[in-house]
Write a structure and sequence with these properties.
CATH topology of the largest domain: Photosystem II CP47 reaction center protein
CATH class of the largest domain: Alpha Beta
Strand content: 5-15%
Distance between the termini: 24 Å
Length: 112
């Protein structure tokens, strides 16, 4: 997902969770097509839905949304993605906890 849209969805999830729903129930309130098409693998700047390389079924075309991943560190903190620009090969993907503390930084093997 794009960082902006992902951040907006997280804010909505927190509101829904405060109303008593579990995270999985909160995510289920968002239309799957909206979540699926905003996924970074479908980003037009990265080849969009017609990318050449394999993604899901080896043909490069994403066919469905399996669900929202939840990342946790070894202490059990839930981690949220930050910093996922379109040209993410040259930028780290940062995972922060609920307090905004950076818990992980993922760099790709090839950094220009």
């Amino acid at each position: 997902m794009s960082p902006t849209f992902y951040g907006t969805q997280l804010q909505q999830m927190k509101k829904v969770q405060c109303s008593g729903l579990y995270l999985s129930e909160a995510w289920s309130k968002i239309p799957k097509k909206l979540t699926f098409y905003d996924y970074i693998g479908n980003n037009p700047a990265k080849g969009g839905l017609f990318r050449a390389g394999s993604m899901d079924n080896g043909d490069g075309i994403a066919v469905g949304w399996l669900g929202h991943p939840v990342f946790r560190d070894k202490e059990g903190h839930e981690l949220f993605v930050r910093g996922m620009p379109t040209f993410f090969e040259t930028f780290p993907v940062v995972l922060v906890d609920g307090d905004g503390i950076v818990r992980a930084e993922l760099m790709t093997p090839i950094v220009r």
